[in-house]
């Protein structure tokens, strides 16, 4: 039985997001807006099938996937790249590898009590986001 990531999660912290945006070559103006956004994560989990939305007042990003099935992801509205994405479980931690132009790119996501943790990495930069479950 995998961990339950489903729910609506509201951002409480976003450590080193600017570093990761820089590593993804996001322009200055977008980064200035991006660092101040309070993101909301909406996750619908049906077994190994995930529908996810990352919402903000500035931009939204949706990506759907099945654990263990590689797919082509277009990071539309983010850095607008095409990557080969694979999400797997490492115990209760979700591990995502995004193969493409940028080395060491992906994210890890896990639940601790009423918090959702998300590490986003690109090249040698790591951002750590924490979300709190909306009741
Ligand atoms: O999360 O895919 O939770 O399944 C990654 C942003 C900021 C401006 C967000 C927009 C990377 C653009 C999605 C923020 C930085 C900045 C709100 C991470 C690049 C561009 C959309 C993600 C998974 C795991 C979804």
From TrEMBL:
<feature type="domain" description="Lipocalin/cytosolic fatty-acid binding">
    <location>
        <begin position="6"/>
        <end position="129"/>
    </location>
</feature>
<protein>
    <submittedName>
        <fullName>Retinol-binding protein 2</fullName>
    </submittedName>
</protein>
<dbReference type="Pfam" id="PF00061">
    <property type="entry name" value="Lipocalin"/>
</dbReference>
<dbReference type="GO" id="GO:0008289">
    <property type="term" value="F:lipid binding"/>
</dbReference>
<dbReference type="InterPro" id="IPR000566">
    <property type="entry name" value="Lipocln_cytosolic_FA-bd_dom"/>
</dbReference>
<comment type="similarity">
    <text>Belongs to the calycin superfamily. Fatty-acid binding protein (FABP) family.</text>
</comment>
<dbReference type="InterPro" id="IPR012674">
    <property type="entry name" value="Calycin"/>
</dbReference>
<dbReference type="InterPro" id="IPR031259">
    <property type="entry name" value="ILBP"/>
</dbReference>
<dbReference type="InterPro" id="IPR000463">
    <property type="entry name" value="Fatty_acid-bd"/>
</dbReference>
């Amino acid at each position: 039985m995998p961990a339950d990531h489903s729910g609506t999660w509201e951002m409480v912290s976003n450590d080193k997001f600017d570093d990761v945006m820089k590593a993804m070559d996001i322009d200055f103006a977008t980064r200035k807006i991006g660092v101040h956004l309070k993101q909301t994560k909406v996750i619908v989990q049906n077994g190994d099938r995930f529908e996810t939305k990352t919402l903000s007042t500035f931009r939204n990003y949706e990506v759907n996937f099945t654990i263990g099935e590689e797919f082509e992801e277009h990071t539309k509205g983010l850095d607008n790249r095409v990557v080969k994405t694979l999400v797997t479980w490492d115990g209760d931690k979700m591990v995502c590898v995004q193969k493409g132009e940028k080395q060491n790119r992906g994210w890890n996501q896990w639940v601790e009590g009423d918090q959702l943790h998300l590490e986003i990495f690109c090249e040698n930069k790591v951002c750590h986001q924490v979300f709190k479950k909306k009741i």
